[in-house]
Write a structure and sequence with these properties.
This protein is α/β, with parallel strands linked by helices and 349 residues long. It is built from 13 helices and 13 strands. A hairpin with a 5-residue loop joins strand 10 and strand 11. The longest helix is centred in the first third of the chain and has 28 residues. The two termini are 28 Å apart. Bound molecules: zinc ion (ZN).
């Protein structure tokens, strides 16, 4: 098994090198699309960000174009636009492991909220390293915040708390916060899992994930997460409902198509739709472990509109279930992606 992991590490390193080379080449070609911090501040104001806003930000930094000053200038622009009473929050999620076999929890990986890098991108990682930020202690879904309500948003988001593993997003909604997505299409990342949690869809399927972490007393402990992730391929379709309600603002941040919307409305509307019709959460991929297991465990077959052949045929359902049982008991299938992303995060610093 360790040989396989070594190969994966090599593969992810070479992928990240290729991507970095591509990134720098790409930036050389986009000098004419050069932006400054003030350009970003103007763009943020134009899309509707204002002083005192509490923002959950998710982005693809490279989609902005060439920004003078890099990620730090972007973070400064966010802070200056929302100061003095605003807050910026980003996801700083970290690795987790399938727990179906004890040995699959990586003994070398121990989450420490003070030092463990995130795989969620360059800007979250740079923000995490800034002075004055607060990072929540959840060993898998930590968020990092800076600004007036940073303490409030991150407080209580800890291991084994028996509350939503994405609770900072509900807190953000309660204080009238907004969600800003930059250059990631209509994937309202991170907060979408809170909507799934509120709809009761996140704890139906094992695998349950685990990770080692440093607890309050400095000891190594194990956190077991029962509600993690979930397929999100169709959630962007639900954004259409919000667009029709007129609550989604669109604009450009640098070169990136971006959207801004109220967190509370997003959570209320999306969770309500998912609760009413869980099939809205199902993608059409025959190999999607999450969706195929969800429809089987919730026995949704009678409520799926225009079901596919694999949702109608009893024999095929049984075959998929057998394949999924194998996948659920073999962790290599569940965290390969995170290893690659982590390597990317490390290479970017
Ligand atoms: Zn799916």
């Amino acid at each position: 098994m360790s040989k396989i992991y070594a190969c994966l590490d090599k593969l992810s390193t070479s992928i990240s090198n290729t991507l970095l080379n591509f990134k720098s080449e790409n930036r050389k070609n986009t000098q004419e699309n050069k932006f400054t911090k003030n350009d970003i501040i103007n763009d943020l104001e134009n899309i509707g960000v204002s002083k005192g806003d509490h923002l959950a930000v998710a982005l693809s930094f490279k989609s902005i174009g060439y920004l003078e000053g890099g990620p730090d200038a972007f973070i400064d622009a966010l802070i200056e636009t929302t100061d003095p009473n605003g807050t910026i929050m980003v996801p700083t999620f970290t690795r987790h492991f399938c727990i179906h076999k004890n040995k699959s929890i990586n003994v070398d990986f121990v989450f420490d909220y003070r030092s463990t890098p995130t795989y969620t991108g360059l800007v979250p990682e740079i923000l995490r390293r800034r002075k004055g930020v607060v990072r929540s202690r959840h060993p898998i879904n930590s968020v990092t915040a800076i600004g007036k309500l940073a303490d409030y948003l991150t407080d209580g988001h800890v291991a084994n708390a028996g509350i939503s593993p994405f609770i900072p997003y509900s807190k953000l909604a309660e204080i009238g916060g907004k969600v800003l997505c930059i250059g990631i299409g209509e994937r309202i990342v991170a907060i979408r899992h809170e909507a799934q949690y509120l709809a009761g869809l996140l704890d139906i399927i094992p695998p349950r994930f685990g990770v080692k972490y440093i607890d309050d007393r400095g000891r190594i402990a194990i956190h077991i997460e029962r509600a993690t992730g979930g397929c999100t391929k169709r959630l962007p379709e639900l954004l259409m409902v919000l667009r029709k309600m007129g609550v989604v603002r669109s604009g450009k941040i640098g070169m990136a198509n971006s959207i801004l919307l109220p967190a509370k409305i997003f959570l209320n509307v999306t969770a309500k739709l998912l609760r009413k019709d869980p099939t809205l959460n199902l993608c059409n991929s025959i190999t999607c472990l999450w969706c195929r297991e969800l429809e089987r465990r919730m026995n949704l077959y009678n409520s799926i509109r225009n079901p596919k052949f694999y949702q109608k045929n009893r024999l095929v359902i049984e075959v998929i279930a057998a394949v999924n049982r194998f996948r659920l008991s073999n962790p290599i299938f569940t965290y390969t992606k995170n290893r690659i992303l982590l390597n990317l995060a490390r290479r970017n610093i």
